[in-house]
Design goal:
single chain; mainly beta; 24-stranded mixed β-sheet; 0% helix
Length: 618
């Protein structure tokens, strides 16, 4: 029997129905137009089969509900249409694809309203294309076994990918074929949830998300059809995720998950990118060669920051154990750069908008080879440590070349490594309770210590270094051999009154000199100073004074006043002391090496109690 229209009505007592249509032109199953049932429900146990090569078309006035356990068989195409009758429901349709479709291709059509499409089980070789058209649509992709393409249409649309989508606790293990998203509006969002157990590796480019147990990957930017917001949610495990590139028109948000230590490598970005850490100890590497892995989380060297072409925001979050690390690498850059560090930002260094960072316990910045100018306005941590009491640290590696580093304030533990090149480090301020470690490393370096409230440790390293302790950068009083015989007095120049914490200086190897200029104290303020082979105290310094070692020369200028200098002993090389104007007393209890004291103007008193064999006292 051949019929053109077959109307079936069945109640809940019918649990199984098989329809086989032998019409060569195809089979159409629809709810009755203009009235009657609005939804087309294909229940568990129902099978629809067409003759070979024919098309099956399923039309619902409102919702199309294809349940798990239902089957559609066709060697041709399957076409599914929801919301075909605008009078049925103005709110849009729900299209559920949870049964088994064996077909050449599957075409799914929503309408101009707010549609929801749920994809749960389309079998292999049934390539699926979904059009949602107008409205604010939602497409939930739980599993796919064949190429699936989504055209979002106009409106503010959302695509959720995960085994429990739209729930947020699923994984992408069931996305075994390629998923292609055409973001056709200017407000499309793609959410990817991969929160299962087991460590994962993921990769993101400006067009594709791969790894994370995706069979092929997700293409979210096709010929300019892109999503404007990409959210990636990782699980509570140890993940390694690399952002190789991002699209200028897409904002990317990566949520690393909690508990374990995750590794994020950011190589290049062109769109705003946000890394949101969990409560584990995460490591974020930024640089074109960023390649951290579980066995070497901090692998990040030889790259540049020149392709960080959009704002990068990193929130480490507060770890419950351990601490978060941010490594910023520009060591492959041959050009001179200027950079600025604040407690929340890193700017310059070839980056377009820089890095905003927060709740990071350990910050490491490595500069390039071109001779850089880097200003530390302040650091991010506190003297008492970060969350859970973990000490906050900031490390700046200046790289090769003659670099200038200016430190304006420090609140945690700061380390500056001069590395190669004739570097200059200016210390214009450090905070109470902070610690600063300044290492000259190779070549001839200079350190200018003007104002400190936190302890500063200087290690000159190799070669010939100069350490200036004075609030007037790079300006020293004249020395007696340079002054006219009729005016042999020091010109008041610098002050050490702002040295309000310990200064510890190790010249290292080479011929290193330290200059301590206190010549510009208030007029005729009487001050005392005490010198030993390793310490200098008094003269306006903090109670901890200056500790020094491995110097070829030490030069000290006192202020104009009736001062007392007590020399208990000197280091083994050269020491020069300028007493300036006033009636001064110099007590030399012992001396090693060469000690020269210039009394300058007024009637001074010199008391020499002892000197060591081989020493010279002038």
């Amino acid at each position: 029997m051949l019929v053109n229209n077959l109307n079936l009505t069945f109640n809940d007592r019918v649990e199984e129905l098989d329809i086989t249509d032998n019409a060569a032109g195809g089979t159409t199953v629809t709810t009755e137009p203009g009235g009657g049932f609005e939804d087309l429900l294909i229940k568990d146990g129902v099978t629809i089969t067409s003759v070979p090569g024919a098309t099956i078309e399923l039309q619902a006035r409102d919702d199309f509900l294809f349940r798990d356990g239902a089957v559609i068989n066709s060697t041709g195409d399957v076409i599914i249409r929801g919301d075909t009758d605008a009078s049925a429901d103005a709110a849009g349709s729900t299209i559920d694809l949870f049964g088994t479709i064996n077909a050449d291709r599957v075409f799914v059509h929503g309408d101009e309203d707010n549609d929801t499409v749920n994809v749960g089980n389309v079998q292999t070789n049934a390539e699926t294309t979904i059009w949602t058209y107008g409205g604010g649509d939602t497409v939930n992709i739980q599993t796919i076994d064949a190429l699936t393409t989504v055209y979002t249409g106009t409106g503010a649309n959302t695509v959720n990918v995960g085994s429990t989508a739209p729930s947020t606790n699923g994984n992408v293990n069931g996305i075994v074929a390629e998923l292609v998203i055409h973001g056709e509006s200017s407000n499309d969002t793609l959410n990817v949830y991969d929160k299962d157990a087991g460590n994962e590796t993921g990769n993101l480019t400006s067009t594709d998300l791969t790894g994370l147990d995706l069979g092929v990957g997700i293409n979210y930017n096709v010929g300019g059809d892109r999503v404007e917001t990409l959210n990636i949610f990782l699980g509570n495990r140890t993940d390694t995720f690399t952002i190789a590139s991002t699209d200028p028109a897409t904002t990317t948000n990566l949520y690393t998950g909690d508990v374990n230590a995750n590794i994020v490598n950011v190589q290049t970005i062109d769109g705003a990118t946000n890394i949101i850490g969990g409560n584990g100890s995460d490591t974020v590497n930024v640089g074109s060669n960023a390649a951290g892995v579980v066995s070497n989380a901090n692998d990040n060297s030889g790259g540049t920051l020149n392709n960080i072409n959009a704002l990068l925001t990193i929130d480490g979050n507060d770890p419950t154990t351990g601490s978060d690390v941010l490594n910023v690498d520009d060591t492959g850059d041959d050009n001179p750069n200027t950079g600025i560090l604040t407690p929340t930002t890193i700017t310059g260094l070839g980056m377009a908008s820089g890095i905003v960072y927060g709740t990071i316990e350990h910050l490491n910045i490595s500069l390039g080879k071109g001779g850089n100018t880097f200003t530390i306005n302040n650091t991010h941590g506190s003297p008492s440590g970060g969350y859970g009491g973990y000490q906050n640290t900031t490390v700046v590696n200046t790289g090769n070349g003659a670099d200038l580093v200016t430190i304006k304030d420090v609140t945690d533990t700061l380390t500056v490594n001069g590395q190669n090149g004739n570097d200059r480090i200016n210390v214009n301020g450090t905070g109470v309770g902070s610690t600063s470690n300044l290492n000259g490393d190779a070549n001839d370096d200079s350190f200018h210590i003007r104002d400190i409230d936190g302890r500063v440790y200087v290690d000159g390293g190799a070669n010939d270094d100069n350490i200036y302790v004075t609030d007037v950068t790079a300006t020293l009083p004249g020395t007696i051999p340079d002054l006219p015989a009729t005016n042999q007095r020091t010109t008041p120049t610098g002050s050490v009154d702002l040295i309000d914490a310990l200064l510890d200086v190790d010249g290292g190897s080479g011929s290193d000199q330290m200059y301590v200029d206190g010549s510009r104290a208030p007029a005729f303020e009487n001050r005392n100073a005490t010198l030993t082979p390793t310490t200098l105290n008094g003269m306006g310094l903090s109670s901890e004074g200056i500790v020094y070692n491995n110097l070829a020369g030490l030069t000290i200028w006192m202020d104009a006043g009736n001062n007392t200098m007590t020399v208990n002993d000197t280091h083994a090389t050269t020491t020069s002391i300028y007493m300036s104007d006033g009636t001064d007393t110099v007590d030399v209890n012992d001396a090693s090496g060469i000690l020269t004291v210039y009394g300058e103007e007024a009637a001074d008193i010199f008391n020499v109690l002892a000197t060591n064999p081989g020493s010279t006292l002038n």
